[in-house]
Amino acid sequence: MLKEGSMLPLMEEFYTIQGEGFYKGTAAYFVRIGGCDVGCHWCDVKESWNADLHPPTRTDIIVDNALKYSDVIVVTGGEPLIWDLTLLTDGLRAKGAKTHIETSGAYPLSGDWDWICLSPKKVKLPKPEVYKKANELKCIVYNRSDFKFAEKQAAQVSDDCILYLQPEWSKREQMIPYIVDYVMDNPKWKVSLQTHKYLNIP
Fold first, then answer.
1. Is the CA virtual torsion 28, 115, 107, 192 positive or negative?
2. Residue 48 lies in a domain
3. Which residues sit in the known binding site?
């Protein structure tokens, strides 16, 4: 059932304001799927990593719950593309919802998406097809070497993909000045901040 995507290990779901990237400030319903083996040491949702800790939930129930609150549905994780998301997006789109995903791109793309936020990680790079379909590229800046990594990632996305640099939350005070200078010197990039944390919301 999990492999087919008719059930997914649901960690949490909640209605809030998108805090990051192109849609920041937009009301959206978040569906957080358990399971991730990318293993970023600075991950702020490490409790999502073990999918066995999160109850397998019928995809049609996830769809019905989401649509009670919003027609903008953001699927995140963990790493949601570990699972086949075709049935989830089919169910959402059939009822008029806009489907967004936040992914490292480390697994093959499944599902039908209106917006793909690709946030690559060094330990497990994105699949080629995810680069090409990404609407926004969000590179996390933990230290100054991450600018070189970000440029390598930007070279692989499409020309109309929006490029963001976002400070890792625990390093924001140290890295924001470097990000500001970098974006001013390289204006193809934009700054993304985790505004939901400044707003003290999920």
1. negative
2. yes
3. 17-19, 32, 36, 40, 42-44, 76, 78, 119-121, 202
* Domain count along the chain: 1
Q: Which residues are annotated as a binding site for S-adenosyl-L-methionine?
A: 42-44, 78, 119-121
Task: Give the largest Cα separation in the chain, rounded.
Answer: 50
Residue 2: inside a domain, yes or no? no
**Residue 1 belongs to a domain:** no
pTM: 0.95
pLDDT in tens, 129-188: 999 999 999 999 999 999 999 999 999 999 999 999 999 999 999 999 999 999 999 999
**Known binding positions for substrate:** 17-19, 32, 76, 202
Q: Is residue 56 part of a domain?
A: yes
Distant-in-sequence, close-in-space partners of 117: CB < 8 Å, separation ≥ 6? 20, 21, 22, 100, 101, 102, 103, 134, 135, 136, 138
By C-alpha distance, which of 42, 46, 57 is closest to 140?
42
Domain that holds residue 123: 7-198
pLDDT digits (tens, 9 = 90+) for 92-121: 999 999 999 999 999 999 999 999 999 999
User: CATH number of the domain that 120 lies in?
Assistant: 3.20.20.70
Known binding residues for [4Fe-4S] cluster: 36, 40, 43
In the structure encoding, which two tokens stand for residue 201, read together?
């919301």
User: What is the per-residue pLDDT for 46?
Assistant: 85
